[in-house]
Amino acid sequence: MTTLPNLEDMPNVVLSNIFEKTGISGILKFRKVSRSFREFLEVSPMNSGIIQMNFSVFRDLISLKFYEKDSENLEISGIQYSKSGENNCEIRYGNSGKALKDSEYSNRFFEDLKIILTYQKSIINILQFVCPVPFFISNYQEFVRKFQKTLENFKLKVKIFHMQHSNFEDIFGILKNLDSREIEEISIFSMTAEQSNNKEIDNWVNLDQWKMAKRLKIRNVSMDQSIIDFLHFEEVHIELRTISANDMILVAQKFLTSPIPKDYCIEYLDFPDESKFSDFLGPQNVVNEENSAKIVFQSTEDENYLRFCRCFLANVEENS
Amino acid sequence: MSSTEQGTSSAAPAEPTTAPESAAAPEVPESFYYVHGKDKVVHKVSAGALQHSALIHGMISNLGYTEEQAKANPFPFENIDGDILQMVVDWCNQHKGKPTPPEDTNLPKQKEKLFDLVLAVNYLEIKELLTYCCKQVAMMVKGKSPEEIREIWMIPTDAEDEAAEKEAKKRAGKEAAGETAAAAGDAK
């Protein structure tokens, strides 16, 4: 055939196949190539297949990194949106960059985000939000609020949800918009050690996402919650202000009678009736590890493992 | 990911049909069919190799041709160039009864050839080969800017598109006006 090929003339099934292979970076690019591609991409239900998404929020800069998997290779690519000058925005993709006049960088980011999420049909293994600069000089909170709003239209399937936060409200708005059937791990890290609005977590315990997750890690913030709210998790790493012997006996009994709990690490500030719990466990189950000041309780099954990191939080507070 | 899945899923049904045959009745010779493209050059291809093409496989599965009948009735693919059909036949022969590897680096690098191959493979419904071809196209646009993609694949810009559309509309408008004028003329 002597005709010069125009990619737009390819049958739709072929175009879908090609776009699936170019991944989300190709999809974003092809939307800029021509109107017919844009229209095609708007109506076709292909999957971009991102397996990990990392969002890093700085001051006047948002960086998005995504991991895609083609047949064998893991590909990592990223887009950076930043403010440049008073009203302009700069978008960097790989080695190329583009400056847009009279354009707000976060608006551009959220426009692209909507497109990216539209094509994300498969499960994301890891969804991560970090703020590598002190959060009060970043635009993190504003970013999170806008992200929550964007997410409302998508039920994103995520296995591991990892987020840095400055208050629990940040997390709630995102967590509730993830598909509860897929979530396996909730891992959050507070950027401020003390949080006034600790009560927000009361709302979480009613979320399906909370009930369905298997692993929970809440770092760097001590909570008033009762340990009972955490007993359905296989793995727990939390910091509580106060724990009581009665509650802890329930935890230990759960370990002895149910196959669900596997590895709990509970750090605490105060344990007034600790001796009652030690008596319950019996000396054969309590190991006082040197230096680490831990009480290790191990049930008969090897995989059930309960640890108590005592004094740890108090030490941190004294030091700081 | 998808290519390996497709590779195993479509290679799997090929096995039960060929394997028991060779095990139980090794004497039965393999059946052959004949295909030709635009250039009328006839290719003799085994049924096993043709299984890669869902279209041809569907055509031959209920045919029950004898060798003579098959020879006398080659399948005509007038929409496929001879050299492209040759490529397809070669690929089917090479991958006959074998699970397809995740990569195929022997595809044409020339975009015109690749384009024609994609169309032929899509028509013949050869899923694995289509996957390879699409991957090749995807590789060709990697690292290219939207402008470069437009140039490589002869895609008009939005402005050119709009201009062409306007032109077409204008022409249509003129024709319509001409028709109404003619109709008015007729009425008079």
TrEMBL record, chain A:
Domain annotation F-box: ranges: 7-40
Lineage: Eukaryota, Metazoa, Ecdysozoa, Nematoda, Chromadorea
Record-given protein name: F-box domain-containing protein
PANTHER family in the record: DUF38 DOMAIN-CONTAINING PROTEIN-RELATED, UNCHARACTERIZED C.ELEGANS PROTEIN
An example Gene Ontology biological process: innate immune response
InterPro entries reported in the protein's UniProt record: DUF38/FTH_CAE_spp (IPR002900), F-box_dom (IPR001810), FB224 (IPR040161)
The organism's place on the tree of life at top rank: Eukaryota
One family name in Pfam for this protein: F-box
Boundaries of every DUF38 domain copy: 142-266
From TrEMBL, chain B:
Domain SKP1 component POZ: 38-96
Key word Lipid biosynthesis present: no
Regions of compositional bias (Basic and acidic residues) in chain numbering: 165-177
Comp. bias (Low complexity): 8-25, 178-188
Family that this chain belongs to: Belongs to the SKP1 family.
InterPro entries for this protein: SKP1, SKP1-like, SKP1-like_dim_sf, SKP1/BTB/POZ_sf, Skp1_comp_dimer, Skp1_comp_POZ
Pathway: Protein modification; protein ubiquitination
UniProt xrefs under PANTHER family: SKP1
Keywords on record: Ubl conjugation pathway
Domain SKP1 component dimerisation positions: 127-170
GO biological process, one term: protein ubiquitination
Region (Disordered): 1-25, 160-188
Protein name: Skp1-related protein
Function: Probable essential component of SCF (SKP1-CUL1-F-box protein) E3 ubiquitin-protein ligase complexes, which mediate the ubiquitination and subsequent proteasomal degradation of target proteins. Regulates cell proliferation during embryonic and larval development.
Superkingdom of source: Eukaryota
Entry keyword Secreted: no
